[in-house]
Amino acid sequence: MLDRLEVLAPAGDEERLGAALSYGADAVYLGGKQFGMRSSPMNFDNAQLVKAVADSHARGVKVYLTCNTLPRNNEIPYFEGFVRGAVEAGVDAMIVADIGLLSLIKKFAPEMEIHISTQTGIVNYVTANELYNMGAKRVVLARELTLDEIAEIRAKTPADLDIETFVHGAMCVSFSGRCLLSQYLVNRDANRGECAQPCRWGYHLMEEKRPGEYFPVFEDEKGTYILNSKDMCMIEHIDKLAEAGVKSLKIEGRAKSAYYVAVVTNAYRMAVDEYYRDPYRFSLPDWIRDEVYKVSHRKYCTGFFFGVPEESQYYENSGYIRNYDVVAVVEKCDGGTVYCTQRNRFFAGDTVELLSPSQKPVEMKLDELFDENGERIETANHAMMKFSFRSDIVFPAGTVIRKAQ
Description:
This protein is of the alpha/beta class and 405 residues long. The protein contains ten helices and 20 strands. It has two domains: 6-169 and 231-301, Aldolase class I (TIM Barrel); 324-404, Elongation Factor Tu (Ef-tu), domain 3. The strands form three sheets. It has an eight-stranded parallel β-barrel with strand order 1-2-3-4-5-6-7-9, surrounded by five helices. It has an eight-stranded antiparallel beta sheet with strand order 15-14-20-11-12-19-16-17, with no helix packed on it. The chain has a two-stranded antiparallel ribbon with strand order 13-18.
């Protein structure tokens, strides 16, 4: 159906792109070597972008290219080449935050679809309509909106203007990510993709001229994480997002691992498919919900979707909860044998889970392991070593094998 919800996955490099494609993304968003809001991932040079688009299109997946920084004067002359490279690669849309860049895309590539980044801070239908009049096909709304506010924007904007919202992943303590902390403290500009995440640091309050006076703002002797937000998770509320008029469900995480991309994309793919089985009586199976807890994450919350959040900050620490490790990836199955490549050490006799696209994880005890010569081994303890085990179940290539910690 034309209005079917889109699962939009992050792709920080070629490996993460492969994970998104294999595990059910309808579209991916990625960055080039310039003008993108994430400088830490590898991103894609021109040749890699051409290949990424071709691989994605071969699977029926769209590619959205980020150009959502706020560029300075000296960068503007390079933007025409960036746009023309995107056109030649065949990207489906460009994501932009700056109105000047929007105008240049319209000039250099009139047929290019334009998505307005969440960095623009769209919180009302007037702004959404004006951006539509300027040529936008989609608006990525600010994270600070409720479902009711989103529904009103949907009702008061043209039907062919898509609405996209972030539904999963890290949140920023500043409005729509417009933060200056990193630039002030360590001269790394968050609005140019270089955020050092000082909102995740532990802080102490000290008044140097008032010895003996204490200010009780910390939770323990380690200090306080007063700026540290929880992660967003809306996987149990797919029906409410659809009812509010959201078209695209965006997963944060271009700097996250390929395992993260695979698992979270897969979970939202299955949740959306579950929703369409019976939209009027949507109830997410526990095993799908549990998938998002099997990646490295902070404590979850639902952000602003249900009103002003009361428990969206996490004051104990800035670390991640990590309950599973990826131990291997399946290369192929042949004649009752599963051939794999190791990622982390594990042992014969360990119980693992095998996660294939759009399938419930399979728990299995690996009683016997064999090296690439077919010799029995007690442990897979060398990075990227080849090994195998026997199984009556056929798993597709790319299946992730993980182990609870």
